[in-house]
Amino acid sequence: MQKSKTVFFCKECGYESGKWLGQCPGCHAWDVFVEEPKQKKTTGSARPKTARNEAISLSMVSADEEERKMTGIQEFDRVLGGGIVMGSLVLVGGDPGIGKSTLLLQVCRELSQKCKVLYVSGEESLKQIKMRADRLGTFGADLLAISETCLETVDELTDQIKPDILVVDSIQTMYREEVASAPGSVSQVRECTSLLLHMAKQKGVTVFIVGHVTKEGTVAGPRMLEHMVDTVLYFEGENTASYRILRAVKNRFGSTNEIGVFEMQNVGLVEVRNPSEYMLRGKPEGEPGSVVAASIEGTRTILVEVQALICKSNFQMPRRTAAGTDYNRVNLLMAVMEKRLGVELSFCDAYINVAGGMKISEPALDLGIVLAILSGYKNLPVDGKVTAFGEIGLTGEVRGVSQAEQRVSEAAKLGYTTCILPFVNMENIKNPAIRLIGIRNVKELLAIMKE
Ligand code: TYD
Ligand code: MG
């Protein structure tokens, strides 16, 4: 019988099977198997030929602080946990066109002043890279670029040039000669990553891999890619807004709570050191239905403006929309207001918007949303120097939230004079720089509104 020349791989975890399967035995995902040409047996290339490895006593291993290099782009260094760890493998994922190549080229520019950098592009010609570089500013001579898709060539080049930093843009365009399938396929992505891993760990090169994200929001190719690398960063943003957020999803050398904020301008990505100021630009003064709420993204406090437009409905089913926050949560909060505060919202259209294009889903935004709706409904403006945060439960109780002190101090720093917050959070805040109004229940909001 003739042997089959193809095998099937799970797109998610890389599980290999001789026949097509509906469900993957490895990760239990459905409909994830793709057919690819069978490889020669010689490619088990996760383990290239090296000197024999020997086990040693852990006490003999010196574990000094890892060597780190600062890129000089503070928002980027922060997300990595305080600079790049030399010899690590970092994956930068994001939607096509979000700005990954731009970000990495800017990082390369900064790094090339301190060490040798090789930028490999499988997507653009050298001319295209140069055109982009010209928009970003001047580049030093220590940044070497090549347009190449064969990873073995890149490996040889790395041996010759011996760069400290290698950028591969993108993993989906790279191929290895010994793997028969097309670039971007499960086996190519897997084998390419294992070669890059080998380059990072054996040769001490710091490798940045760019990966495109699929519709489902994971890096195209096997999930395994994320397991193999030391750090996974996601670069995200809205199509309509110019700000971008860099987020650590996995980090073997730091916290995954960090975010970095950038703005895409015509000169490339510009750091946003104070996201609150950025988000609050253009906030109207003294208008009903606009409230500033203190929310936390990662480890940073970001003040955002919550807007609510409440008007009498002409429809049998009133319209409700929520932009930048959870639609169901808004409906729930409106039901709580209707029941506990007696405001008649069931005949009103309600449009809720978190201005600036940011998406916030933390419950601490509840109080801001309720206050904005109340202000919009009653047509009473909330003082522009007031900010609010707190979670609201179904009985109308205002529940404590985390990092209250941090939120209050950010509000004070930005010149706000009053903060409405959960009563239980009051005791944790020592020496507040601004007036605090602690509330236990949404009913107390009505009294404050009348002030
Ligand atoms: P790019 O880095 O090519 O995205 P990716 O590598 O993630 O696919 O970014 C492309 C977008 O960025 C493109 O739509 C144009 C925009 N851009 C600017 O707005 N200003 C600039 O200076 C540069 C270089 C790009
Ligand atoms: Mg690109």
Verbal overview:
This protein is of the alpha/beta class and 451 residues long. The protein has 3 domains: 38 residues; 207 residues, Rossmann fold (3-Layer(aba) Sandwich); 173 residues, Ribosomal Protein S5, domain 2, CATH 3.30.230. The chain is built from 11 helices and 23 strands. A 9-stranded mixed beta sheet has the order 8-7-9-10-6-11-12-13-14, sandwiched between helices. Helix 8 packs across helix 9. The N and C termini lie far apart (88 Å). 40% of the residues are buried. About 1% of the residues have low confidence. The site of thymidine-5'-diphosphate (TYD) has 14 residues, from helix 2 and helix 3.
Number of domains: 3
- Look at the structure and name the CATH superfamily of the largest domain: P-loop containing nucleotide triphosphate hydrolases
Query: Residue ranges: pLDDT <50 for 5 or more in a row?
Result: 42-46
Give the overall silhouette. Answer: elongated
Number of DSSP helical runs: 11
Instruction: Calculate the terminal CA-CA distance, rounded to whole Å.
Output: 88 Å
By CATH reckoning, the class of the largest domain would read Alpha Beta
Q: What CATH architecture of the largest domain would you give?
A: 3-Layer(aba) Sandwich
Secondary-structure class: alpha/beta
Within the largest sheet, what's the order of strands? 8-7-9-10-6-11-12-13-14
Q: Into which percentage range does the β-strand content fall?
A: 25-35%
- Name the assembly state: single chain
How many beta-strand segments?
A: 23
